[in-house]
Amino acid sequence: MKLLHLYEASLKRRPKTTNAIMTGALFGIGDVSAQLLFPTSKVNKGYDYKRTARAVIYGSLIFSFIGDKWYKILNNKIYMRNRPQYHWSNMVLRVAVDQLAFAPLGLPFYFTCMSIMEGRSFDVAKLKIKEQWWPTLLTNWAVWPLFQAINFSVVPLQHRLLAVNVVAIFWNTYLSYKNSKVMEKDKVPVHYPPVVE
Predict the structure, then answer these.
(1) Average pLDDT rounded to a whole number, residues 43-56
(2) Where are the transmembrane segments?
């Protein structure tokens, strides 16, 4: 309980920084779990610290800000004007918009960001999206709608990203696994930009 009070106090003082730290940490935990539970290579058995760092960077510097903004938009802009804002029909609307707009676009964005941070080409990002987008989206739809219905109904706005991030430890484990799965399967070479002297 004390930890929650510290989190709330920090969220009031520095909301963006707090969300960035929390989201990055939980993305990192997801990647650590993925590497320990689902090692992707029988040849390279070492732990990939850079991969975890990429997950933390994505969570902290990219997703935390997008997620925070997205939940504010869902809360403040997405509702039927003729119903009370917290009516069950508005919760259904928010879940539908979240799952039919944000999720289908967020997954390719994730795979693209990770490819770029891995130093790989856009062709690799396209390959990841081609092979992983639909199965990952189907899994997303099996996991997130029920949770988001609860999240939008019960959890206060300022804690929604935290609630998502806690549940997302498992989701991030899965995403990290899916992201690395394409790379192992295809052994796509890393393309670094040419050095200009």
Answers:
(1) 86
(2) 20-40, 55-75, 97-117, 137-157
